[in-house]
Amino acid sequence: QYGIPVSGKHELLPMKSLAQLNARLTHPIETGLKRPQQKSYPHINGLYLLLRATGLGRVVSAQTGRLLLLDDAALQSWRNLNPTERYFTLLEAWLLRSRPAIVGEHGVLLDVPIIKWAEFFRRIPGPGLPIAGNKDQELRITYSPGWYTVAMLESFGFIVVEDDGPEGGKGWRIAKVRRTPFGRAM
């Protein structure tokens, strides 16, 4: 079988592929990390979460270890959807079927994206929420809503993220987040 080898315990993407995947994203991020892991790239982590939560990708055992494969039947079904159906299929998968364990994170009973989204939105004032330089917000975002949740909110168009430049030894640095009109409406 042909697939992408994944790491053992949490079945994550190989570290050597992350920078290349990040560079191919519409909005790649810069980090100041020497050996970034998958969670260091929140957008990749979120996309991987969606791939697994939708069933488009699945991990199987092979002679060489564990492999991430595309599910041909699910992929064919995906290709039959129009863009609106694809968007809402991904949104539903994220909000209702995803779990932090898919990307090697620890979760609690009420650790569901829609609750994290609502709680985070309540913290964002009208003009936006400054993050970089505010130690309380930098720490808080790590735990609630979490970096990949911020990336997912941005990817679905619910917030705008203003990146701050990379800093040695640190991951994604966010200067500010703002709710979009679409995000407020949703």
Characteristics of this structure?
single chain; 186 residues; alpha+beta; 3-stranded antiparallel sheet; 8 helices; 6 strands; 15% strand; globular
What's the order of the H and E elements? Answer: EHHEEHHHEHHEEH
Q: Output the structural class.
A: alpha+beta
- Main sheet: which strands, in order across? 1-3-2
Number of strands: 6
Radius of gyration based on Cα positions: 17 Å
Q: What percent of residues adopt helix (DSSP H or I)?
A: 40-55%
The end-to-end span amounts to 41 Å
Question: What percentage of amino acids are in beta strands?
Answer: 5-15%
| Overall average residue pLDDT | 92
Low-confidence stretches: none
The 3D shape can be described as: globular
Please give the largest β-sheet.
3 strands, antiparallel
Number of helices, counting only DSSP H or I runs of 4 residues or more: 8
Question: What does this molecule look like?
Answer:
The chain has 186 residues and is α+β, with helices and mostly antiparallel strands. It has 8 helices and 6 strands; from the N terminus they run E-H-H-E-E-H-H-H-E-H-H-E-E-H. The protein has helices spanning 15-24, 42-54, 72-79, 83-97, 113-123, 135-143, 147-155, 181-185; strands spanning 4-5, 57-62, 65-70, 129-130, 159-163, 174-179. The strands form 2 sheets. The chain has a 3-stranded antiparallel beta sheet with strand order 1-3-2. A hairpin with a 2-residue loop joins strand 2 and strand 3 (65-70). Helix 2 (42-54) packs across helix 4 and helix 2 crosses helix 7 (147-155). The radius of gyration is 17 Å and the shape is globular. It starts with a strand and ends with a helix. The mean pLDDT is 92.
